[in-house]
Amino acid sequence: MNMKALCIQSQYPISGDFLCTIRDFQCVRTNIHNEQIVLATPGTFLHSPKGQLHRFTNISLEPAKLLCWVTPAGLEKYFTEVGVPVSERISSPTVSPADIKKVLAAAPRYGLEIIPPPAESSQI
Question: pTM for the full model?
Answer without folding.
Answer: 0.71
